[in-house]
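User: Design a sequence. Structure:
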């Protein structure tokens, strides 16, 4: 019987612990450095495992990139909405797609003496201040601010036929603003930038109170909603003019020409007797004034308690009367001046009705004294 030879086998004490590496000749290590530096796990990974790992890395990188893109898109969307609410998102919109029916305008239809200046400015340098519109569901728009600018573009397109005036720069107002807020946008812009008469502001307040969508039940509510940015005294004047217009109705053809003092006198006279409103309407119907001056003469006579039986024939305007238009910069701002035969107008962004009457009289006296000064 042959004897079996027994061999000693050394097992590692820790599972998965590699045994002590055998010494390798220096020349072998030099010839194959990749075998010496390769990790055990890499040496055992097959082609399929490598492909799966690389694909997982690519998917993870792509997911991170998509997350960053979504975050950037969300940021840009919120920024767009913010700018749109401020009316800072501007586009060129066809004027034929802009309606002007949603809001009652605070400007009476008729010839605007400053519209020609605005048209000349647009032709020379373009429109510096875009209009503001609200987009409708059907892709059309509703004008919120910029009635005079729209009129200027419409007239320029009609007069020149140039397609450049068929599209107007417009700021897009975000949807969702209440009707009251939209009216306030229109009114506040004109209070600051345009010299609107008390009668025009009062007429808008009357129509605003009649609009069931505004929530204003009285004239006082309408004035407080629309002219919240105006001073207390100015709101009182607007209410007084609104009461005059409501009492007289359509009998007045040129209410925007009524000065503040005359409007207040008319309000007092109408309040003194409930029948006076009918007296004034009868006087206007009897005289049938043909222009602003003739109508103002009837109103003055009524305010003074006089009866007016026939209109005073106004002096015929002289043909070819020169007109001077200029702008003057003073410490308080820029004054727009227009001078013609028998009339001079000055307008600036300031509420002169709040100035003391005696101070106004002194200023007017100083103005004419300076005109007569020979030096």
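Assistant: Done.
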């Amino acid at each position: 019987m042959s004897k079996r030879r027994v061999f000693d086998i050394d097992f590692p004490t820790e599972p998965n612990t590699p045994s002590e590496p055998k010494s390798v000749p220096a020349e072998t290590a030099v010839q194959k450095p990749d075998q010496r530096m390769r990790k055990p796990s890499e040496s055992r990974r097959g082609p399929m495992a490598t492909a799966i790992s690389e694909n997982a890395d690519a998917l993870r990188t792509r997911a991170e990139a998509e997350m960053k893109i979504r975050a950037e898109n969300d940021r840009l969307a919120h920024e767009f909405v913010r700018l749109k609410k401020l009316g800072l998102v501007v586009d060129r919109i066809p004027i034929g797609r802009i309606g002007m029916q949603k809001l009652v305008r605070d400007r009476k239809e008729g010839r605007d003496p400053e519209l020609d200046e605005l048209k000349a400015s647009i032709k020379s340098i373009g429109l510096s201040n875009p209009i503001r519109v609200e987009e409708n569901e059907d892709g059309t728009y509703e004008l919120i601010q910029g009635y005079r600018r729209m009129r200027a573009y419409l007239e320029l397109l009609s007069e020149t036929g140039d397609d450049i005036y068929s599209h107007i720069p417009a700021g897009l107002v975000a949807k969702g603003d209440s009707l009251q807020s939209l009216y306030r946008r229109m009114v506040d812009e004109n209070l600051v930038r345009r010299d609107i008469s008390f009668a025009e502001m009062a007429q808008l307040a009357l129509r605003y109170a009649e609009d069931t969508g505004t929530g204003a039940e009285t004239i006082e509510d309408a004035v407080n909603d629309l002219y919240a940015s105006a001073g207390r005294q100015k709101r009182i004047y607007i209410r007084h003019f609104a009461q005059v217009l409501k009492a007289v109705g359509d009998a007045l053809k040129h209410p925007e020409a009524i000065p503040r003092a005359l409007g207040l006198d008319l309000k007092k006279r109408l309040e003194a007797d409930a029948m006076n409103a009918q007296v004034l309407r009868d006087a206007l119907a009897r005289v049938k004034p043909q222009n602003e001056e003739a109508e103002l003469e009837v109103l003055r006579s009524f305010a003074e308690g006089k009866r007016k039986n026939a209109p005073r024939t106004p002096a015929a305007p002289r043909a070819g009367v020169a007109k001077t238009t200029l702008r003057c910069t003073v410490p308080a701002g820029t004054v727009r001046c227009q001078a013609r035969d028998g009339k001079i107008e000055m307008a600036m962004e300031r509420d002169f009705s709040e100035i003391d009457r005696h101070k106004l009289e002194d200023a007017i006296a100083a103005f004419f004294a300076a005109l007569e000064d020979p030096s």
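The chain has three domains: 63-177, 197-310, 324-367. The radius of gyration is 40 Å.
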